[in-house]
Amino acid sequence: MKIQKLTQENRVKVYALLHRAFPGSDHEAGLVQKLHENGRAIHEWVCIHTNKVTAYIAFSNAYHGKAICGLHLAPMAVAPDFQKQGVGTELLRFALRQDAVKSQPLFVLGAPGYYQRFGFEPCSIPICPFDTNNAHFLSMRNNTTAGFVVGYEPEFKAAATPPLPHGKKRRAR
User: Fold this and answer.
1) For the domain with range 2-104+151-160, which CATH number is right: 3.20.20.140, 3.40.630.30, 3.30.530.20, 2.60.40.10?
2) 8-state DSSP, 38
3) Distance of alpha carbon 39 from alpha carbon 66, whole angstroms
4) Which of 15, 20, 118, 137 is spaced 20 to 30 A from 145 at the CA atom?
5) Are 17 and 56 in contact (CB under 8 A)?
6) Which of 6-10, 79-83, 169-173 has the lowest mean pLDDT?
């Protein structure tokens, strides 16, 4: 297995992996595709095994207002037939050692028991807009003391909002 930066050629393989890893959800693949299409700053790596993408990890900017305050880890995925074999662990450890990531405050919305193994800690500040009471929101190297709602790239909001049936419009709030 080889870990490398995501290449243009492997993007379609990543979208397919995200569909397999998150069955019944188009949100993760759609999110990553929109981040790519919109040229957002993103740090991405893949695990390659016999010319197949078996795992993927991405980091995008986290915001305090308009200022970048760290990185969000999302999404991370492992192909179903490679899960529970240490592939995700190896990929995450690799990513955490990379220059673009290793000194940044990091945030993740996920399973606390999994991410705490890597040094992430429960986080009450900043507030995650996608997690009631920050129950699954964790951080690493987070020195934030002021309360604020952490910002995500706009593509995350679109991915978190389920699509409406064709022809329907969402009412403004």
Assistant:
1) 3.40.630.30
2) T
3) 17
4) 118
5) yes
6) 169-173
How open is the CA angle 107-95-12, to the nearest 5 degrees?
A: 95
Contact yes or no for 92/118 (Cβ under 8 A)? yes
pLDDT digit string, tens, across residues 103-136: 999 999 999 999 999 999 999 999 999 998 999 9
Secondary structure of 90-148 in HEC code, one letter for each residue: HHHHHHHCCCCCCCCCEEEECCHHHHHHHCCEECCCCECCCCHHHCCEEEECCCCCCCC
Whether the predicted model's global pTM rises above the 0.85 cut: yes
96, 71 contact by CB (below 8 A):
no
Tokens of 165: 């049936």
Cα of 78 vs its chain's centroid, Å: 13
Q: Evaluate if residue 169 carries a pLDDT over 90.
A: no
pLDDT top residue among 159 and 138: 138
Domain ranges of the chain: 2-104+151-160
Distance set, CA 41 to CA 10, 36, 92, 100 (Å):
17, 9, 19, 11
**CB-based contact 138:123 (threshold 8 Å):** yes
